[in-house]
Write a structure and sequence with these properties.
Chains A, B: This is Tryptophan synthase beta chain. Two copies of one chain form a homodimer. Chain A is an alpha/beta fold and 453 residues long. Chain A contains 19 helices and 17 strands. Chains A and B meet through helix 6, helix 8, helix 16 and helix 18 of A and helix 6, helix 8, helix 15 and helix 17 of B.
Chain lengths: 453, 453
């Protein structure tokens, strides 16, 4: 029985899996807020590479991964699948626990998988510069890493609160040649407007998105890139689930439960979609798919399935998704990557159609599981990824009660090397749990855009 | 041609390689400063586990790695050997560059290799607590990781300067259940004595060693552990070189140059000793072995081969080694792990006997190579490990001139996730190079202990 199931670099998947080909019902189309008509390819051309737009709208089941992309992926893929034997022993569970580890990528999470692909297509099209926003810093780091490799310039608008809190993330991006500024900046109309009203603001992801989109629209040969939510981002992450299935085959295991945390939905989609494919096709109907979110930002568990904007300012297309309302600003929990009011439209539709169970946890119980996991398996997880650990631990404890011998698989989407101040807050008892902010959410949900399709 | 050569977990070496069995001349024995006689096993028993003392003095060529140790090693071993293709292209070199990457261990460096083994033998002997010192924090983190796995308590005296500079390292150790205090503390005689004289001292490795040794001697069931210099530490690191040789075989390559940075000497020993074995046996006389050190602390390149203390206070055994004098305090360069006045006695003897070439570099040129490497290969290296990169780059540029097609292999001993403030200093032009501190070294070398053997 092996602790770590590894694949050879030849076994990096040769194609991405596009779940749009298999879904019994596709989500309703995104809407252009200017025309209130469904978004077409031409609406996206000013800021996205053509091939990414094609992938966004494609219903082809498998899409070839270019050799150039696979070659860069070999810097850290295939990623290992681990058996968490010490954790099993600690929990005295009858279950088996496996985890797929995405934290070995140079920027430290799964985000690199899509950054490489997105930058490749932009480079191929002659784009010389990419602008983006970053909250926690994982996505900005990943884009910096990928642009450096392909020789593009990179401009990152980092939410000022995070920028001040996580100086190492900024230096990491600069080491990879990117420029990183605290948002709001005085370099965009959007930023200046906010600064005029509130010079001391800590910023928000919504503002940073507006700045990056404006930057891309206004600069020569510059595109925009997004690290989650969109269909093509979920697509690029399916290397995770495809590798996991191959590794489970080698281990002669069948997954009974597949778990991942869900913020915008991309690491969840990455591991889950290939398993949902097998559910839909009838190859394996019994795998339970679980999305885990913070109680302080319970998009799938307490949100509405409705049309809403992707950003606070209402500049992005209006998407059909689970949402807490685009005006909802989640409490300042330590999982920055899970503080998003919406959810990937594909993940949302699959949840609405009953393919996904969603659960939520408070941050103290999540950190408790994270510290226990670090003690058993060595790896200190990102707070986001620790949500998946907590759900896996709970499933394993259920099995201990029932005596079931389930195989539980979760996605450990990143390491926590840059999140240690959160661990300090937890270890010193200073981490606060937030009750479900029902009032705030009710208020925010009252303000959804009206769409008739 | 593969980018990443991986081994299966069954291929973790089953034995450590003990170079003491093969050396034409062994180093002169360490001397007990109390008796001025060679150190015997009984001198070490109060603070080291029996099996580690046996390994320290053994001349058996191969020593079995216990299954329990190999099982923990599977959490991150075998480590990958990478071909640095993008770096080669960048340098337009005719050489091939490979690197062995030890930064995937949970604490982030090769130090975990010996921490696991040391804690295992201590646990087996019923020891319940281990005390140690740490400078940069890599060793303290590794011991915290290993003690947590085996259920021992861990006490780390961290040099106060580092403690204040790298708060994340301390939190990492605490997450793994260790206690970590800034040294000097008021918990030991040694610490109190220093604080009385100088309450605001930033501490030093020498003081921290004294505190940890005193702690181990005074506490019930507590031993001491050291992360470099000693024979058994070098022994445990030989998994690195053994794996590398197997991986080169798979790649159908023969190493012409093997490079590692050298502070206390353990990561260098780890990759180099199996290659030196083949030099000594005549199997392969042509491999050049290169140790790289900072110009600010040039132990092998400017030091004396002489008997000296391992610590500043003169409490440790007196060892025959290259030394800058135990009173030498190196300038505050950003490679904390290379700021040591001495060098492992085995590495020293091999250098004295002509098996090793030593070179030194200033820190700005080292960081230049580190940033170039990060841009090509993704990984942001620890400043210590970046010394090896700089030497590899220079070798590759030599080949570009001569047209030679050498195969260059270096050990990338750790990642730089907790060293990003050094990168910031470099990127902002604030990093200072120190001239070879000839006066300081001359002064310090005037104060060596007198030993007659």
């Amino acid at each position: 029985m092996k602790s770590r199931i590894i694949l050879d670099e030849d076994e990096i998947p040769k194609q991405w899996y596009n779940i749009q080909a298999d879904m019994p019902n596709l989500p309703k189309p995104p809407i252009n807020p200017a025309t209130m008509k469904p978004v077409g390819p031409d609406d996206l051309k000013p800021i996205f590479a053509d091939e990414l737009i094609r992938q966004e709208m494609s219903t082809k089941k498998y899409i070839d991964i270019p050799d150039e992309v696979r070659e860069i992926l070999t810097q850290y893929r295939p990623s290992p699948l681990y058996r968490a034997k010490r954790l099993e022993e600690k929990l005295k569970t009858t279950a088996k626990i496996y985890f797929k580890y995405e934290g070995l990528s140079p920027p430290g999470s799964h985000k690199a998988n899509t950054a490489i692909a997105q930058v490749y297509y932009n480079a191929k099209q002659g784009i010389e510069r990419i602008a983006t926003e970053t909250g926690a810093g994982q996505w900005g780091s990943s884009l910096a890493y990928a642009t450096q490799i392909f020789g593009l310039e990179c401009m990152v608008y980092m939410v000022r609160g995070s920028y001040d809190q996580k100086p190492y993330r900024k230096i990491m991006m600069e080491t990879w040649g990117a420029q990183c500024y605290p948002s709001p900046t005085d370099m965009t109309d959007a930023g200046r407007a906010v600064l005029k009203k509130n010079p001391d603001t800590a910023g928000s992801l919504g503002i940073a998105i507006s700045e990056a989109v404006e930057d891309a629209a206004k600069h020569e040969n510059t595109n925009y890139a997004l690290g989650s939510v969109l269909n093509h981002v979920c697509l690029h992450q399916t290397v995770i689930g495809q590798e996991t299935q191959k590794q489970l085959e080698i281990a002669e295991e069948k997954a009974d439960v597949v778990i991942a945390c869900a913020g915008g939905g991309s690491n969840f989609a990455g591991i889950a979609f290939p398993f949902i494919r097998d559910q839909i096709s009838g190859k394996d109907r019994d795998t339970e798919i679980v999305a885990v979110e913070p109680s302080a930002c319970p998009t799938l568990t307490k949100g509405l399935y409705a049309y809403d904007f992707g950003d606070v300012a209402g500049l992005t297309p209006i998407m059909m998704m689970y949402t807490l309302g685009h005006a909802f600003i989640p409490p300042a929990i330590h999982s920055g990557g899970l503080r998003y009011h919406g959810m990937a439209p594909l993940v949302s539709k699959l949840h609405a159609d009953g393919y996904i169970n969603a659960v939520s946890y408070h941050q103290n119980e999540v950190f408790e599981s994270a510290v226990m996991f670090a003690g058993c398996e060595g790896i200190i997880p990102a707070p986001e990824s620790a949500h998946a650990i907590k759900a896996a631990v709970d499933k394993a404890l259920e099995c201990r009660k029932t005596g079931e011998e389930k195989t539980i698989v979760f996605n450990l989407s990143g390491h926590g090397h840059f999140d240690l101040s959160s661990y300090q807050a937890f270890l010193s008892g200073k981490l606060q749990d937030y009750e479900y902010p029902a009032d705030l959410i009710r208020e925010s949900l009252a303000d959804l855009p009206k769409v008739e399709v």
